[in-house]
């Protein structure tokens, strides 16, 4: 665990377990709950939940600065209790906490996937009148807005993604990112002929094979099956319409590194950084981890071909990790101060740059990254789409089902049936 204290310097609390710090042993929390005062000022124990443990050192530094700012400007002694579970288990942990009235004061959610159901459930504080809102780029603001026009989160990550490729390997082999599935097969064969493994496989965490869902379904919806999401929401569609997504899935898993189901995301990033394979179906959110392992690596972002229609080879545009404030927070003043500090005029540029996140606000004064420029080539050509609102429960199910499929335990039809069932179950609960 890590506790930041305004008076006595900083000590660290990072928990990988649900509920860590919710009980005794945190004197700052006990003081706050009893209305405690410290050195003539107010004492607050702020609980945060951010499922990005690989970026812990950057959050530590920024939270330290926030604690010092609250003490200097408001004479509030803030203790921050930061919970950073892995991405694979975080959604269920957070849902359990929210449903049991044990909500963190500030918590990370996926803007596209989770804002609609969390807002409907009454978990999210309305942030529309907060100062940070006026700083948001016009292209980003809608992603953290509800259907009735309320801003309910501050965005951290905006994404332009498909798959990552090693530019040095591609250049040495005279390759360019393919625009069709047939071209991808040619790239794969050329790499294999030169004893280069085509793909990194790292599927120990279910959210990683899940990435094939938004990529393949997103491209198919934007070319061949435009009303698929609407019909699925009405129990009138089926994933059997999308069986073609297995063409790219099967190609990747037939031509990847060994023992992928035993390899997690961080190890996959290290393997990619070391040139163990030429491509990785993964997003640039791993840029910081990759470059920490190999600062000299040149990698790019390209759209993943799923069939032989070049118009379907598109970049996914999304806002993912965003910070919300609990509607039931007892420390709302300090929680609101923190989400506004996330887009601080002076300090946030260095924070976002250290995280390797794209600029999201008018106050951000740093340039975008080379891999962002790669993705923008597709965007400027009209070959991009906004991330689909696929229910998180369906995405979670796709990750688990694809793990079983990769292991040879279930068939393609079993995967499709599981996805249909998950969506219908979601509809029953959310109608």
From TrEMBL:
This is Extracellular solute-binding protein. It holds the Pfam family SBP_bac_1. It comes from Paenibacillus faecis. It comes from the Bacteria. InterPro entries: Bact_solute-bd_prot1, SBP. Gene3D superfamilies: Periplasmic binding protein-like II.
């Amino acid at each position: 665990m890590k506790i930041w204290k305004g008076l006595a310097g900083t000590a660290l609390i990072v928990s990988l377990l649900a509920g860590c710090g919710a009980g005794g042993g945190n004197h700052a929390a006990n003081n706050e709950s009893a209305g405690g005062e410290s050195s003539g000022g107010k004492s607050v124990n702020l609980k945060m939940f951010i499922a990005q443990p690989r970026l812990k050192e950057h959050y530590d530094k920024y939270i330290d600065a926030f604690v010092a700012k609250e003490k200097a400007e408001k004479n509030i002694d803030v203790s921050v209790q930061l919970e950073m579970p892995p991405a694979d288990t975080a959604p269920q942990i957070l849902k359990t906490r929210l449903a049991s009235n044990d909500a963190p004061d500030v918590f990370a959610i996926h803007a596209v996937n989770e804002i609609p159901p969390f807002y409907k459930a009454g978990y999210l504080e309305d942030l529309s009148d907060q100062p940070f809102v006026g700083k948001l780029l016009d292209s980003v603001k809608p992603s953290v807005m509800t259907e009735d026009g309320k801003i309910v989160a501050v965005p951290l990550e905006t994404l332009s993604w498909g798959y990552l490729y090693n530019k040095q390997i591609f250049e040495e082999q005279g390759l360019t990112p393919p625009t069709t599935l047939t071209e991808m097969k040619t790239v794969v064969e050329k790499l294999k002929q030169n004893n280069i493994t085509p793909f990194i496989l790292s599927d120990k965490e279910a959210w990683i094979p899940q990435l094939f869902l938004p990529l393949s379904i997103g491209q198919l919806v934007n070319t061949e099956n435009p009303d698929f999401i609407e019909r699925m929401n009405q129990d009138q569609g089926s994933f059997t319409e999308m069986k073609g997504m297995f063409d790219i899935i099967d190609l990747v898993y037939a031509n990847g590194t060994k023992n992928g189901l035993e390899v997690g995301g961080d190890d996959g990033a290290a393997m990619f950084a070391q040139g163990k394979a030429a491509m990785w179906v993964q997003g640039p959110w791993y840029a910081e981890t990759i470059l920490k392992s190999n600062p000299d690596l040149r990698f790019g972002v390209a759209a993943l071909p799923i069939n032989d229609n070049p118009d379907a080879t598109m970049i996914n545009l999304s806002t993912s990790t965003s910070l919300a404030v609990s509607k039931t927070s007892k420390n709302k003043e300090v929680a609101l101060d923190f989400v506004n500090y996330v887009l601080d005029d002076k300090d946030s540029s260095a924070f976002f740059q250290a995280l390797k996140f794209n600029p999201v606000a008018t106050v951000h004064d740093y340039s975008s990254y080379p891999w962002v420029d790669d993705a923008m080539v597709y965007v400027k050509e009209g070959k991009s789409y906004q991330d689909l609102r696929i229910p998180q429960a369906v995405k979670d199910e796709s990750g688990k089902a694809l793990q079983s499929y990769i292991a040879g335990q279930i068939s393609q039809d079993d995967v499709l049936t599981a996805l249909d069932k998950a969506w219908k179950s979601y509809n029953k609960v959310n109608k």
